[in-house]
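Design review, sub-item: ligand-bound model
Attendees: FS, YL, KQ
YL presented the inputs for the zinc ion complex:
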Amino acid sequence: MVSYKLVFMTPYKQPQRHYRRFERRPASPTSQGGPASPASGSAHSASGLTHAGGLTRQRPQPQAIIRRDFRPSSLPRQQAGLLPAQTGQKIVRRDLDKTLRIIPLGGVEEVGRNMTVVEYQDDIIIIDMGLQFPEEDMPGIDYIIPNVKYLQGKEKNIRGVIITHAHYDHIGAIPHLIPKLGNPPIYSADLTLAIIRKRLEEYKTYPIKLEAHIINKDSKLKLGAFNVEFFGVSHNVPASFGVIVRTPAGIVLHTGDFKIDERSPIAGVTELDKLSRISREKPLLLMADSTNAREIGKQASELDIMTDIEEIVKSAKGRLIFGTFSSLLGRLNEIIQVGARHGKKIIIEGRSMKINVEIAKQLGYITIPKNTVIPVEEMKRYPDDKIMVLATGAQGEDRAVLMRIANREHRFIEPEPGDTFVFSSSVIPGNERTVQRLTDKLYREGIEVINYRMMDIHAGGHAKQEDLKKMIETVQPKFFMPIEGNHSFLRIHAKVAKRAGYDDKNILVADNGQVVACKDGVCALTKERVPTDYVFVDGLGVGDVGQVVIRDRQMLAEDGIFVVIAVVDSKTGKVKGSPDIISRGFIYLRESKDLLQQVRKRIRDIVDRSAPPGQETVNWAYVRDNIREQIGQFLYSKTQRRPMVLPVVIEV
Ligand SMILES: [Zn+2]
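KQ shared the predicted structure:
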């Protein structure tokens, strides 16, 4: 294998290498617009709804207007802008800043980690709480969650968390952040909450109290200063919605993830009627999904996809194995109906697929015709052309069903010539190579593979440019803010807004943590930034793996480690015997005797020079630094590699 290496002009100076930027922009300490007042009377406990553990089907009651008993605090009340009235029971607000603050804590510099804070005085609502999958240069990291430092000390102000839909980039951080934020109530659709609850069950190590409220697209909530409504959207998980927030500063809309499919309700319907009604109220700001902003035209309709899938099902001569996402529940439902129409027996394989289908069935999002779904053990009782498998792993995930079948590690399903594998989901950027490997494997087995490139069997869940333009034109907000995507996606989305007639000054492209302030009918980007540094989740650790640890891992992964152990006589200042060398991932020691000899000699020289005899106290840290630097430089000059050099000096 050809590997190429960047050569650096600077001498051995480890950390600054070709690693991607990990230092984020310095986050300026936040000066809060609204004073950090001790909000009185938590909204959460006041709602009279069930607490803890279970989800509740109760419709949330309109929340009482929140400020009630003023609790004394250490904050000078004048400074906080709050004064208890004579009765001592009521708060009189004085001179509070009337600015509405919108802060994307994540999701505007990447796809994932979606979380938006909407804040007015001492009321906060949060929209979504997602995770981001790690990049290739973050070894060992499971995922990344939003940084909530800004909300520390403001937990009492959080009136609610609204979750737009059940995808992990919108719900994945809930188990980690909800306890940290003082267990604020969560509002979402039945299906979304059921999937969240399943996810929480994976965190048995620390029980999480979840106050969950089921809402639907027609619900209305009062959360502190905000009146919240919703609008249904078409997306590839059912029960997705966007959010309409009526704030004292104006109406703010957040689309969540959406697409527009005017020909089919399979993936849900984006309620354009409702949105055009809202447009008459002159909304202040629209935040909209940019995930597919790079794609021209309109998103494909589920109708065409189903026509293609029906064709595949009809013409398959052998077994049909569909790989897809377990969250594509609308699509899965349709595939099951198509299969049933053609007399197929359907096997559902993969843990997450089984769980999600079961949840969706219970809540009525999927109907399974009688005698259609069979357990995998019964597969052999039916002819091959009657068998259809719905499986996880269309991204080439290692342990998922498709890969296990391809590797002949599946207990019941062995690949056979004549099988047709259908990849009915687009490949997430970064997974192309593993999917290619999986495809190659299947072809080797004589299997037919149909992927979304060959036939249009995957409509993404996100609006393309013409759909995005339609959204902006329907809502007609005064200000437009693209969200959910890398910076370039947002910029392209901004161009779409310009095509819809918007001026630059009415388009706000924010960075993670950048505060958007709205006051007197005008929204603007501010210079204020709240912390958004990565918070890594690695196993059970949250935030304990920092950028230093990641850099070490990168270094170890690239060139290995080189440990030098020198025993030094403190009287003479000389190395005793021959220094020990341990190395992993750097060179094969047995074949590098020469190099090691030279290293040992150099270590002795370095120690001699750094700790001359007769010197009263030897600065051993200085000796170690010298070994690290000089041995590092020497190894680089001999090998063009930069292993992590770890000197251990033992004084005897
Ligand atoms: Zn989504």
